[in-house]
Amino acid sequence: MHEVGIMETTIAAVLSEARGHDASRVHNIVLRVGALSGVEPDALRLAFDAAVKGTPADGAGLEIESVPARGRCPDCDLEFDVESDFIFTCPKCGRISGELVQGRELELTRIVMS
Asked: Once rounded to an integer, what is the mean pLDDT over residues 52-71?
């Protein structure tokens, strides 16, 4: 379960930011997770509970914002929802493409601390 390593790295970054801002407590953490990132949100939540134990983030909330996958057609420039991160077809012109404009994100977007 690679989510454990991802969460350990995330919590280390959060705690580093907290120290850098002289914060003694982390109250909330917000992550953006793309539908095609290969990361399972439920597994992240489980890993989060273990990773924050005994740290200034113990008891903090975790919000996970889901980012849907969207492709872009190189011919007609249309952006559209996609189900696969491999090859998909533009619903407007039928061009086969593989260009994703979103959906692979894994970002730490906000930390609430005091």
From this structure: 97
Polymer length of the chain: 114
Number of domains the chain contains: 1
Full domain range(s) for residue 23 = 3-113
pTM for the structure as a whole: 0.88
pLDDT (0 to 100) of residue 1: 64
Cα 29 from Cα 111, distance rounded (Å): 5
C-beta separation of 6 from 76 below 8 A: no
Q: How far is CA 31 from CA 8, 11, 14, 60, 96, in A?
A: 14, 11, 11, 13, 31
